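QA checklist item 7 of 12: single-chain prediction sanity check.
[x] sequence parsed
[x] length recorded as 504
[x] structure emitted
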Amino acid sequence: MHATLNFARFRFEPASTRLWAGKREIKLTPKAARVLGVLIARAGEPVSKDELFGDVWRGTVVGDDALVTCIQELRKALGDDARKPKYIETRHRRGYRFVAPVDGAAAAAPAPARASAGVASIAVLPFTDMSPGRDQDYLCEGLAEELIDALTQIDGLRVAARSSSFRFRGAGLDVKHVGRELGDLFETQGEIATAVAGLLRGSALSTREKRAVRRPQTATDTYEYFLRGRQSLHRMTRPDLAHSREMFRAAIELDAEYAPAWAGLATAHAQQFEWWGSQPEDLREADRASRIAMELNPQLAEAHVARGFAMSLHRRYDLAEQHFAAASRINPQLYDAWYLWGRSAYARGQIERSAELFGKAAAARPDDFQSCHLHGQSLRNIGRLAEGLVVNQEAQRRAERILALNPRDVRTLSLGAGSLQVAGDFARAREWAEKALEIDPGDMGAIINGSLLYAKAGMKEEALGLLERALGLGWGKRDWIEQDPDYDSLRDDPRFVAMLSRLK
């Protein structure tokens, strides 16, 4: 059964966009149903025409008539009167407002994070590898990612995440030429950011933005090792994390004062500790490397993120929060700052705070799925069910878009299974979870999320079997398990108690 939102005598299913009156389904056209979903999500507050066009007719140019037709269809279906509205109120020259109480909630559910009207958007594609051996992919991706980081510093500019933009590759510059010009790259990034601000935003960079987009400089060889390490860091497997640490160390050997390499090394050790064994030496190295990064460049947002991550794993949560907050002040659009801060808040039991932080991560990266999913989970955990269901619907939409581009995205399949389960579609949820494990049986996220799916469904043996597999591979996230209610059905089981006692 799908989760529903209720108003008056009607109920609406966000996941399927179906409308019911009692046992009778009220048929709506897909666009009208989507308009209704957006208005209900923002119940009590005006929704502009531009926002409705952007959400319902994404990427398609239509006139006002299309929206008016949908509103008329909805009013007819609901038995509403435009002059004395009970459900949909017209806001002159502004848009529409859903005026009926939804689910009896005291506050209206917030809209899922999306790019606001007037915000320019841009995607940075990786360079095309034109080298003879086609073996310079790390450089193609790395240069584009550095530019993405620079552009996120610009206010009023929405930059697509690497995970989205890197799926589209077309003709580009010869990477050999880029390599020869690498010494000028640091200046070029600032010039590109300035040009983009002028073209898309219509104004020059502020003093803060000029300072923020200026990247720390180093020698070409050092920077090459740094880019190699950063590329591997995103993949999160044990071999890739090992390669990432090796590359960051090589960069540091060439330039021991290059703070981004120290921040990268700290993050690689922190990820290794969190996901692959919780070995004390990894935590010590994350602590040491992040401290050095901070000493070298206290104005580098990534250094604060790395330090916050390390302190969170030490369970020094107040200190972690100080560094995450500092990173978000330096770069308010830095996704990693908000996301890891949210995870830290959840781990320490501040679930309401984690909901706020995951929401900000989802807003900083509107194409990201996992922050949106965790935002909805935190909202549901604190009893804000209506809001959680609306955000979960947005998480599903993001997951579907990602999988349309890459059907073998294990992280989205495994975590997205949880969103489907919340929406009441267990059959499809199980299909996604099992597909993720089939694609990569050793992926820690697929194993953990699969165990959660089975635990919530009351399938204890399957859930415990996957948890034992995770522990056998070295996983050790005790504080997260202690806070996550999805494990509640297992807490009295002796096998679960024994497993929990082995975690650090």
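[x] summary fact logged: The mean pLDDT is 81.
[ ] second reviewer sign-off
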